[in-house]
From TrEMBL:
Matches recorded under InterPro entries: Alkaline_phosphatase_core_sf, Sulfatase, Sulfatase_N
Coiled coil regions, renumbered to chain: none
Family classification: Belongs to the sulfatase family.
Protein name, per record: Sulfatase N-terminal domain-containing protein
Residue span, Sulfatase N-terminal domain: 9-318
């Protein structure tokens, strides 16, 4: 939020300097960047070779050099968290091309190959069993031949993206070596924040299709990809936010079951971690010298990401504070991992750890793991019945002995009901202590009540030209069921062009703009569903009052249709039916802008002219939520199901106004209605 508060920004949480993005993800080509608390634009354009992960590595190197030049005796802490290889999968073509043909065998065979390599490297125990594909997942043989090139390219792009990210990590490490700091720097490298993601479902050019529960088909995606972006080569580019097929995610989670968003199986959450600190030096009186001897043997002790902070505290000899600026601190979660550094077989010190994500849950205790799959199947479209009837009290629990079963291949729940009951109680205690209850609360806004998701408490806004980078959650909303009226007091010249206001970006958005005097309103429910209203004639120069009205047919359901209507000086000049609206979010990080479109562009019409700044003058943009009835709903209420076309045309012209002609009839179950 541009007006603050900023206490939850990184600089409000202990960091002296921040460079990066604040959202869960962002475009690698047009990222929504922040420096400390200030929104900034990338230093170069995508056409000039810009890529966020490279930029972040360069910034980390710059920080290290400044530290050595100005404060060489001061130790530093860097939290380097690039967007790679999180979605959207963005990487330059030459990186993806390195993996052409590498995955032609399909996901089942890839998983088998990976499994054998893992055992050969000693990365997993030789006794590990390879878990089979879930019956609800798609097998490679079920992919039609004509669709395989698409599926393979999605995976090739991801592989190139992963190598590219690893290369940038390497650049930072090389700088430490160049500065003579590598030996005395504790490096904790965590490969990812969860298992591979299944959110691409059947493979997608726009990952927010699944988030917004919008239907998509291969033919539909290829039509858009070929028509608008030049075909398969666009995958990995700034134009699409692609995500691989969910079965590739399963292959990438070898040897475990499931994927990201499943807390019951390690395919959803187990990731590699490496620590390095070859030759520690005493830099502070009383600090203890710690040295990690090189050892390729993986540690088997069970640990969690919450154990990283205690590890750092012990390593550098800092006592965790009980109070900060007078405020009592919560107890420190986690257990230091220092004890494992030079003793591969030392007894494990972590006794219990809970996991939970949107109803999927698990708990670890002394080698045992009990879990529940939960209501969602991440690799499949939402099952209405399954979600509606889900009751956490009747969930079926699974049980695994991790001391003998590394991959959770053998469910012992039926054989050991007493152990299951014991583990369920441990989970309840851990969940209570860590404020996890009620179970499944994360589903409340994402699935059951998206209208109650993050949003501004305002219902009316007065905005001015130049106000930009307003978070979507703080801006006027144009999501499903949110009726609105925007009034723009504007001064235009002949052939006026530029964005009046917009929210979102390439993945999805809403933009009101002018081009060569014509007025446009474009509602893009991801790349697959684009709706454009355009004025019938160019607007006359001078001071004009433009109004944009968005009325949904209903406030309920998944992505209900809406009427999007344009008015100039009180007269309707354009209209379009938005058949599928956005229920949750247009974009993960793109923002609301007045007078321009920063970041990735909403519209294809001006994608090569960004930020497409308006060349007139916007005196005021007034947006408010309104009550209203869409044309579809109005006609269905007004017209009896038995009315004839002749009777329809005899309706009072004064009542129908400009809506009579032109028209065509669309059959619904109960009636016919006019669509303009």
């Amino acid at each position: 939020m541009k007006s603050g508060p900023f206490d939850q920004y990184p600089t409000g949480l202990g960091f002296s300097y921040f460079y990066g993005f604040l959202a869960g993800e962002t475009s690698q080509y047009n990222p929504r960047l922040y420096e400390n608390t200030n929104p900034i634009e990338p230093p170069r354009k995508p056409e000039e070779g810009y890529h966020l992960t490279e930029d972040m590595a360069d910034q980390a190197i710059k920080f290290i050099r400044a530290n050595r030049a100005l404060t060489p005796d001061r130790p530093f802490f860097i939290y380097f968290a690039p967007g790679g290889a999180h979605g959207p999968h963005h990487v330059h073509k030459e990186w993806a091309d390195k993996y052409k043909g590498k995955f032609d065998m399909g996901w089942e065979k890839l998983r088998n190959i990976t499994f054998e390599k893992q055992k050969a490297m000693g990365w997993i125990p030789n006794s590990t069993k390879l878990t089979p594909i879930d019956p609800t997942m798609v097998k490679w043989k079920e992919i039609p031949e004509e669709q395989r090139a698409f599926q393979l390219r999605l995976m090739e792009v991801y592989a190139g993206y992963l190598e590219h990210t690893d290369t940038q990590d390497g650049k930072v490490v090389e700088e430490l070596e160049r500065q003579g700091l590598f030996n005395n720097t504790l490096i904790i490298y965590v490969l990812g924040d969860n298992g591979a993601s299944a959110e691409g479902i059947h493979g997608t050019i726009d990952e927010l299709l699944a988030e917004n529960a919008l239907p998509s088909a291969y033919q539909q995606q290829m039509e858009v990809l070929n028509r608008d972006f030049g075909g398969l080569d666009a995958l990995g580019s700034q134009h699409v936010d692609k995500m691989y097929h969910s079965s590739w995610a399963w292959a990438l989670d070898t040897p475990f079951k499931s994927t990201k968003l499943v807390a019951a199986h390690f395919g959803g959450m187990r990731t590699p971690m490496v620590m390095s600190w070859p030759k520690a030096k005493k830099w502070k009186k009383g600090s203890t010298e710690k040295v990690i001897k090189h050892d390729p043997t993986p540690r088997s002790q069970f640990h969690h990401v919450c154990d990283i902070a205690p590890t750092i505290y012990e390593a550098v000899g800092v006592q965790f504070p009980t109070r900060v600026e007078g405020a009592k601190q919560m107890p420190l979660d986690g257990v230091s991992m220092v004890y494992t550094w030079n003793n591969v077989s030392v007894k494990e010190r972590k006794s219990a750890q809970y996991f939970e994500v949107m109803g999927s849950r698990g708990v670890y205790k002394d080698g045992w793991f009990a879990s529940v799959f939960g209501p969602r199947i991440p690799w499949a479209e939402a099952n209405e019945t399954r979600m509606r009837e889900w009751n956490p009290d009747t969930d079926v629990w699974e049980l695994y002995d991790l001391t003998r079963d590394f991959s959770q291949a053998e469910d012992l729940a039926k054989e050991m009901p007493d152990q299951v009951a014991k583990m369920k109680q441990i989970f309840l205690m851990e969940a209570t202590a860590n404020k996890v209850l009620p179970i499944g609360a994360g589903l409340y806004t994402i699935y059951y009540h998206p209208e109650e998701g993050p949003h501004s408490p305002l219902t009316e806004w007065k905005l001015y030209e130049g106000l930009t980078r307003i978070a979507e959650s703080n801006a006027p909303g144009f999501h499903s069921g949110q009726n609105s009226l925007a009034t723009i007091d504007v001064e235009i010249s002949a052939n006026a062009s530029g964005v009046l206001y917009c929210v979102g970006g390439t993945a999805g958005g809403f933009s009101v703009y002018m081009d060569n005097g014509y007025l446009y309103a474009e509602y893009m429910s991801t790349l697959l569903y684009r709706y454009i209203a355009k004025s019938t004639t160019p607007l006359q120069p001078g001071t004009r009052k433009i109004q944009v009205r968005l009325i949904f047919e209903t406030t309920k359901g998944l992505g209900p249709p809406a009427d999007l209507t344009l008015f100039v000086d009180g007269q309707q000049v354009g209209w379009v039916k938005v058949e599928k609206s956005i229920r949750l979010v247009f974009d993960a990080s793109e923002t609301f802008d007045v007078g321009m479109d920063l970041g990735s562009p909403v519209s294809l019409l001006y994608q090569n002219r960004t930020p497409f700044k308006f060349n007139g003058k916007i005196n005021l943009l007034h947006v408010k939520y309104i009550n209203g009835t869409s044309m579809h709903t109005w006609w269905c209420r007004l017209i009896r199901p038995t009315i004839s076309l002749g009777q329809l045309l005899k309706l009072d012209r004064a009542l129908l106004g400009p809506y009579v002609l032109p028209f065509f009839l669309v059959q619904s179950r109960r009636t016919s209605f006019i669509r303009l």
